[in-house]
């Protein structure tokens, strides 16, 4: 059985998960509004592909791409982070469009509208039987890790309650969380089976899927470590009220800049995966829609929650793939109408979510940054 499309979806979900985790670091934990997040992905994608074409080893090319994305974050941050948040949002939109126009017009550097093609990409080899078995075992470990994150996060949400007028904490109603848990577990298992088959009957795309999932797990684990460290607690304090950590002698500007640069580097890593999956990249691949898809994921899963971002990614891509096939089956809808309806429905879902649960599925209401 050919599971090619499912492998494509899993790789896309992992790439978007990394991309959205970078945005969650900037907005969910530091409160920095970034509407041009795709600019960092563009730098990562072009730097990785162009440098690898010139003979630089792929890992070094990826690191250079992440470094350039960090440098862009430094450039934007030093000029805007001391200003009001809306200035940062405006500047990031402008910078993302500027990066896209440079990629489109500077043919000597980016090959312009002809795109970058036939570049080296990882995992393109013929593994032995033992290697394929190891790949399957590693995918199983990643699946168990993902399921444990989900269960732990949902149980944490269930145990947390609301303290009103001195009353004790009451557990939340578990029905909605149970439904989300069942849906997400089913989606994870649906992805696991074709992943195992594709890795055993190895192809480069299956190897790229495993690499993307591994990088997603490493990014998630690294962010979880940092946001629960003293650095992360200071970042949250800055998000809530930056005057308090400033009064305690903390360099608020420097912490914001670190978060902005870190989120950019993570987006640069996602750009490398995005390029490898497409196998050829063009400036038109990096439009504003990528940024707002990441925003949808973070809002859906819960700002300030890395587990929520991963959960939001799974749900978003499940919705995207299912409606892509189901809606055109409706007789009175043509392809363009079905595409418009998909966007309209996800907008409606987000509006309902903002009313019913504005903090997202795994977010905390007291940590909302919208409207601050």
From TrEMBL:
Topology in the lipid bilayer: Multi-pass membrane protein
GO molecular-function terms, A-Z: branched-chain amino acid transmembrane transporter activity
Classification via Pfam families: BPD_transp_2
GO CC terms: plasma membrane
Identification of the protein by name: High-affinity branched-chain amino acid transport protein BraE
Location relative to the cell: Cell membrane
Family annotation (InterPro entries): ABC_transp_permease, LivM-like
Organism: Synechocystis sp. (strain ATCC 27184 / PCC 6803 / Kazusa)
Keywords linked to the UniProt accession: Cell membrane, Membrane, Transmembrane, Transmembrane helix
Ranges that cross the membrane: 6-25, 32-52, 58-75, 129-155, 175-200, 206-227, 253-274, 294-319, 339-356
Swiss-Prot/TrEMBL GO biological process terms: branched-chain amino acid transport
